[in-house]
Design brief:
The chain is an alpha/beta fold. It is built from 6 helices and 8 strands.
């Protein structure tokens, strides 16, 4: 049984019916000289990374296909390129004014960073959905191995929050799968909503806005099947 429609599901008058649209791309930037670290992050998530000349920079442009088996698609991709000098200069001024990285940081900055560390999902972030739980688990295992083996990469991962899935009462399959998981069996915290597992990664390897605040990347998997029609992405009720 599908979720019951609400007023929020209605199409506004005058809207073109049934557009064939998808989420096209996300543009991210890395700090100059850090392209190897930034692209390595996406390789560990299972993406295909392609390098192209960038006419606006000495650093290359990267097109990252999240579905690596069909890299020629015009959607489901990430553009990754170097920060422009003007933004680097602006961020230097902002960081100095806020006391970022010092013992005299502005209280508003400290409160913001503390809140984001506790609840990364509430911060501006982007999510990647995996159609197989095994692929999400492999991505987390790969990230952890890279962190353990390479201190330079590890220093750029500020947090990795693992949240296991929970089903409706009596859904033993989800409970058993979480208990058997090398990734999710290690946590007692549950994801928001039902039937979904989540991992939140805090990193400053790249950003969508101000790079001095870094980014949050969310990895998701949703269990489907009878009785699991509702989840945090179509009916956000815990």
């Amino acid at each position: 049984m599908a979720p019951t429609n609400t007023a929020n599901d209605r199409v506004p008058a005058g809207t073109v019916p049934a557009p064939s649209a998808s989420l096209g791309h996300l543009a991210l930037h890395f700090r100059p000289g850090e392209r190897a670290l930034a692209t390595r992050f996406f390789e560990l998530l299972g993406a295909r990374v392609q390098e192209f000349p960038n006419q606006f920079s000495e650093e290359p442009l990267y097109v990252i296909a999240m579905d690596r088996d069909t890299p020629a698609r015009a959607d489901n991709i990430v553009y990754l390129f170097a920060l422009k000098p003007a933004q680097l200069e602006l961020e230097t001024v902002i960081a100095k004014q806020l006391g970022l990285g010092t013992d005299d940081a502005h209280p508003a900055l400290t409160a913001f960073l503390d809140q984001r560390a506790r609840w990364p999902e509430s911060y501006l972030h982007f999510g990647l959905h995996y159609s197989r739980l095994e692929d999400l688990e492999a991505a987390v295992t790969g990230l952890r191995a890279e962190v353990a083996a390479h201190p330079e990469f590890a220093s750029r991962i500020q947090g990795l929050q693992v949240l296991k899935a929970r089903g409706e009462d009596g859904d033993r399959e989800i409970d058993e799968r979480m208990a058997a998981s090398a990734v999710f069996s290690q946590t007692e915290e549950y994801a928001y909503g039902r039937h979904g597992a989540q991992v939140h990664i805090r990193t400053d390897l790249f950003a969508t806005g101000l790079s001095l605040f870094g980014s949050v990347v969310e990895l998701d998997f949703v269990f489907t099947g009878p009785g699991r029609e509702r989840n945090a992405f179509n009916s956000p009720i815990s």
